[in-house]
């Protein structure tokens, strides 16, 4: 993978060939979590070396096995149903931490293609974000939040001047610009009704927005309650993600249960 040049003829085929190999390995890893595999580290290297333009055509293909791993990891940590006699395959924290690094890099490089895909992805991430410190490692839970942050950062306004997405005024002042990358240039052509930022601001998404506000604040509060054993890094990620969510969604679109005072009273980054 040294000196990858995505402009060379056949570059896309080469990337797809590698991605296909790694994705098949990930599907096998999901069925056999105890398998010792370096697939995730190799996949992460490939994602980091590849350009957004070269990865975008294979976004869905690469996303699927990573989300299946996330589902399996969350299921194995959730309380089984009363009538359930099936024990889910246990995906270790170490495996999921590596998988979340891959997912974060993928979301950093690629754009979502539809509102339905956005809804599905946020639902799966919210399940991971709801895990308690007793159910998952700090790195696992922080990785989920970082993935959601990249998802938000990569949402950009559409080309329609009359779209409600134009109400966004910029990034929160307290966020350091060096910690935010510039979203890749999308090659996708969305219809006006497919503007993901406008959807995030809509009444339809208000419940999901409220849920994520709650999850982020609970994650930060859980670490604070653990005292010196709590993760300052996780708290900072939770609060910085909260500020990005605030920047993407105008205050008047928040569920009524979140007042301005309550939101900012609890969104102070720990020193």
From TrEMBL:
Domain TTI1 N-terminal TPR: 16-156
Domain of life the protein comes from: Eukaryota
Transmembrane region(s): none
InterPro entries the record matches: TELO2-interacting_protein_1 (IPR052587), TPR_TTI1_N (IPR057566)
Protein name per its UniProtKB record: TTI1 N-terminal TPR domain-containing protein
Organism annotation: Nicotiana tabacum (Common tobacco)
Gene: LOC107805044
